[in-house]
Amino acid sequence: MNCxxxxxxxxKPKPVRHLPRFVRCPNCxxxxxxxxxxxxxxxxxxxxxxxxxxxxxxxxxxxxxFLWLRFKKISRLVKTKESLILDYGCGNGKLVSYLRKRGLxxxxxxxxxxxxxxxxxxxxxxxGVIPDKEYDMIMLWHSLxxxxxxxxxxxxxxxxxxxxxxxxxxxxNGNCLEARLARDLWFxxxxxxxxxxxxxKALTTLLQKTGFRVLS
Length: 216
Known about the structure:
The protein is an alpha/beta fold. It is 33% helix and 17% strand. It contains seven helices and eight strands, in the order ββααβαβαββαβαβα. It is globular, with a radius of gyration of 18 Å.
């Protein structure tokens, strides 16, 4: 089998003790799945609706705080408020909505028709096909671990970026202590929705293979 992160042929795939259903690539150290189970996303995966008003009231301030932290980070990395941003794998468009309300020019892309329909119902600029634009920044915020073709997806986004554009990626760390202790009970294990697990080396290798220079 070929590693979907770096492309190397893995001659003898060996199961990983702390991440069941995954094998480790000896080249990039990333973890790729050997199982072909299809991930079927229920509609509630994207709506994030809950009938428990007490739970909504408890977690809303915390979620808004995390959105604010993302906004601050993104604001520091874009050159101007006129910079075009794409949220790749944006789900229901919550981050798109938050950033637009704060004056940033953001589009969203998601391969799920359910997610796109839900976002568009709320009037968000979220699409099932990447808009024909050149973006100053493309974000993959906890979306790259959901794809079985991260190398191909990263190559695709280079076709939609300005020459001096930046990519901002957030993914779980498959080598973290939490993962090693909790194994398949790890919150970010999330099988079958998470199809790959990265390490810092694996993510660096992926970016370098697709022509990016790692700034931080």
